[in-house]
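Take a look at the protein record below and flag anything odd:
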Amino acid sequence: MKALPPRVLELLAGVDLILHAGDICRPGVLDELRCVAPVVAVMGNRDIWYRANHTLPMKLIIEVGQVKIGLTHGHGGLLGYIKEKLIFFTTGFYAFRRYERRARTWFDGVDAIVFGHTHYPVNRVRNGQLLFNPGSVGPDYRAKFGASLGRLTVNTAEKRIVGEILPIQSP
């Protein structure tokens, strides 16, 4: 995409912080998002082609109040990505639960894990931990779900975090 769909910026209006789970692809996207709120981003597998994205970490933990959030793309670096592709091309099977398990092993003691990579929206609590994938703003990825983004609401007084998947379509 040459620019973010205007609806994305409408849905993000008023947020305090934007988390980007990778596959930024075009570095200008982060600048567009910074016009709305501060941005924390990690590198996705598609970001290896853009030099400006090489400085982004593969994973990190941020704190909002006392709520800890693990942020990752989830592809497991170059070796993890190659292994995943070999499995897919030999079996034709993607194990989406594997990404969730992998992310949980990377982040000990966090209240939520935000990940990307599959571009499939996920919003579920497992063992008291929120697993959250906002999907993709690019509708070409997963036509079944359509373009989406996610909103996390953090209640710092109750140390609670709730996720919501928002479809990107005109109201």
Remarks:
- The longest strand covers residues 148-155.
- The mean pLDDT is 83.
